[in-house]
Automatic annotation (TrEMBL):
It comes from Pseudomonas carnis. This is Spore coat U domain-containing protein. PROSITE patterns: PROKAR_LIPOPROTEIN. Residues 27-164, 189-328 form the Spore coat protein U/FanG domain. It comes from the Bacteria. The lineage of its organism: Bacteria, Pseudomonadati, Pseudomonadota, Gammaproteobacteria, Pseudomonadales. InterPro entries: Spore_coat_component, Spore_coat_U/FanG. Transmembrane segments: none annotated.
């Protein structure tokens, strides 16, 4: 009897051991809150921030899950995220704010409302599409961001720290017959830093200068009442310079137009005066000297600089022709 009993025990052990292997083979998924990967919009000019939406993303918003060999999310499985912050967007050094929208996937179909639970889980949810517990290896939940246009802001680094409260409850492994082997439940909070660096920029409107036609140098009429309009980053102090053109006189610095090998000297002067507008030192114009809206840049408004130009009459009249020059306007911050 002992031998027969032993045989029964051995066969029973084999059967139980086999079942044990089957169940152990079904790896159980498990989630945890981990450190996030910061989201950065990079370095963007202030004009671009105001006029065009910028995008960013993070590959890891704080929830990491290991996979199960057999898993299938159903409608009762949930991965909730509640995003909050004491700010309303990224805040810069002067208190300006850049607002942005957070999305649950790489489209505008799943916007996330701050302060409200957003579910990444369930049958057909985002968690399923990114293979959060389907493997192989550990997976994290990405987030996608898009800035909102219209922000007129100063240059600087803009940041916001989001608090993301995670709560999850899902079937972490499936056994024979589709039986749920257990549920993984938990919660935790992660911090995600979002940033953008705004750089100084300007939009410049500068008309061409035309002296018209004349038979002799004394016949050219001076150009007056023309303006250069410049819209620069909000709060930026800057200077405006005009280059000496392509053919300056080496001594005296006069600008010259050229036609073939012949020259016609001229110059450009600040406002309505006789002070030459140049590109170096005091020859430049500061934003505080603008005729309209003097001071630092406005961002969404122009500052106006008056100038006049004339052909020098103390030069011989050159041969007939069309005389041209190119002058570079530069803005320095």
């Amino acid at each position: 009897m002992r031998h027969r009993t032993g045989s029964v025990q051995v066969r029973g052990s084999v059967g139980l051991y086999g079942v044990g292997l089957l169940f152990c083979g079904q790896a159980m998924a498990a989630c945890s809150v981990v450190s996030t990967v910061p989201a950065s919009f990079g370095s963007i000019s202030s004009m671009t921030v105001r006029t065009a939406a910028q995008t960013s993303s993070t590959t890891n918003s704080g929830l990491s899950c290991t996979s199960a060999l057999i898993s299938l999310l159903v409608s009762t499985d949930h991965f909730y995220a509640t995003i909050t912050s004491p700010q309303t967007g990224m805040v810069g050094p002067t208190g300006d704010v850049i607002s942005y929208t957070i999305y649950g996937n790489n489209s505008t179909s799943y916007p996330i409302t701050r302060g409200s639970q957003f579910d990444f889980g369930g049958a057909g949810g985002i968690a399923q599409s990114i293979g959060l517990i389907a493997g192989p290896g550990a997976k994290t939940v990405p987030l996608y961001l898009s800035s909102i246009t219209g922000s007129n802001v100063a240059a600087g680094v803009y940041t916001e720290t989001l608090s993301i409260a995670w709560v999850w409850n899902y079937c972490s492994g499936i056994g024979l017959g589709g039986i749920c082997l257990g549920r993984d439940t938990g919660s935790g909070t992660a911090s995600l830093t979002v940033s953008m660096t705004v750089t100084n920029d300007c939009q410049i409107t500068a008309p061409n200068i035309s002296f018209g036609s004349a038979p002799v140098v004394s016949g050219f009429t001076a150009v007056s009442g023309q303006t250069i309009n410049i819209a620069c980053t909000k709060g930026s102090a800057y200077t405006v310079g005009l280059s000496d053109g392509q053919n300056p006189v080496s001594v005296g610095g006069r600008r010259r137009m050229v036609s073939g090998g012949n020259y016609l000297a001229y110059d450009i002067f600040k406002s309505a005066g006789t002070t030459r507008w140049g590109s170096v030192g005091a020859a430049r114009r500061a934003s505080s000297t603008a005729e309209v809206n003097p001071g630092n840049g406005l961002g969404n408004g122009s500052q106006v600089y008056n100038y006049n130009a004339k052909v020098y009459t103390d030069q011989p009249t050159p041969p007939a022709g069309t005389y041209l020059d190119n002058v570079v306007l530069d803005v320095g911050f």
